[in-house]
Amino acid sequence: MKEKILNQLQKFSKGMFVPVLILPIAGIIIAIGNILTNAKLAEYLPFLKNPMIYGLGKMLSGSLVSILVNLGIIFCVGLAVGLSKKKKAEAGFTSLLVFLVFINAMNIFLDITNRLAPKDALRGTGQTMVLGVQVLDMGVFLGIILGIVVAYVHNRFCEKEFNGALQIYGGSRLVFIILIPIAVLLAIVFSYLWPSVQYGISSLGNFIRGAGNFGVFMYGTLERLLIPTGLHHLVYTPFLYSPLGGVAEIGGKVFEGARNIYFAEMADPNVLRLSASVIWDARGLSKMFGLIGACLAMYHTALPENKRKIKAILIPAAVTSILAGVTEPIEFSFMFVAPILFFIHAVLSGLGMVVLNVLGIRAIGPNGFIDFLLYNLPLGIDKTSWPMFILVGIGQFVVYYFVFRFLITKFKLKTPGREKKGNTKLYTKKDYKEKAKGNKKSENSNFAPIIVEGLGGKDNILKVDNCYTRLRLVLKDSSLVKEELLKDETAANGVVIKGENVQVIYGLKVTSVRKSVDEYLGIESN
């Protein structure tokens, strides 16, 4: 039972990447729009005073903010596409239709049961307008629920065909036919059930926020501790896109979730200082600073004869963490050989967020230095206190360095570069040189047979998938996995085995790795 639950959570986790990884793009565009309409910046760059440029900035900010108030439909379509196994485009289109059926069915049922609140006084009633239709305010949870339901029905019936006159009603049309009564029934059920859920969510959010710095610490620590399972974003997503992360009225509109509030405040020139809810999106502190200190400690504690090799391994991993916020290459370099370091890393990451909260720093820092610059600099110091974020980050770098160095030397931990015999746990020097030459396509193609061999052979592989940084697989027999082969010969940063589910961490190049494996196995990539 435990394995089945974990399997389903991993599938859900993978599906969530579709909407979750798209939304930050909206934030970046809003940031660009804010730069183009920044009055202080225009004093130094006169061309920004041009009406066309200013208008473009307003257009970018305004149009992208509209996404934030319609997250339900974004998650509905995104999850349906992410969780569907075949005919993903049809699944996405069907989910859009089901979403429309649901909100209209709920509106009608609330009307006939005399439970619709006055349209001009919705604040505090638990109701809102979605695509011009008044319904209960289910926010992003509506999209998640409908996305899962659509994907489940789609996967079961999307290839069901009929003969004769009924042939036209097969496939995706049958899926929609089945989903119509389901959507109507769900609308009726949730019209009674959701007010209690709303109360529960509000109470949980109030409890966590009421816990103050302890709540922030637990949030930041748990988010890192779940990295090995690939489920860490299930911790932060509700805080970023639901009432758990806060509720605020900005520019006459109500926004739920830390990131939605932040993006709205970023686009509103009348907001002089960002809300405290931004702390839930400050997870990038350890990515940009702390883990870099850990890398330096691992380098300085490596054996003299291994330092050259370990430098080639750690530098690209550190740069990736700083710029893009991808931390697996570093974390998996010490996670399995020295679990205590990973636990300490999670604790220090949570403590770093507590320091930001105590000092009242309002800078956002989710995914590396590029995002940090785009999000914070255009808003100015008064609105974000971004220089203090960097100062705290430097302090965290120092703490990580001395704590990691002390633990590695005190307990003689076998972190990369401290092995007297055997291979390193990350990239070999040969792999690093090949990568530096830019021959990624041929490299990944050469790796495909070795990857398949490391997974127990073609006949042992039931399913191949991937997320942002991991190759995700379902195997017949996970005991056949050759971890050392995958790490030493294919530049895998780590291997996670949970029953029949196996994850091989390759970082940002995982998409090309997945493609080469699919081609070698003779299957079509989704």
UniProtKB/TrEMBL annotation:
Q: Where is the PTS EIIC type-1 domain?
A: 3-420
Subcellular location per the Swiss-Prot or TrEMBL entry: Cell membrane
The active site consists of C467
Domain PTS EIIB type-1, residue spans: 445-526
* UniProt entry tagged with the keyword Protein biosynthesis: no
One Pfam family, please name it.
Answer: PTS_EIIB
TM stretches of this protein: 20-39, 59-81, 93-110, 130-153, 174-194, 310-326, 332-356, 387-408
Q: Is Transferase one of the keywords UniProt gives this record?
A: yes
Name the NCBIfam families for this protein: EIIB_glc
Record-given protein name: PTS transporter subunit EIIC
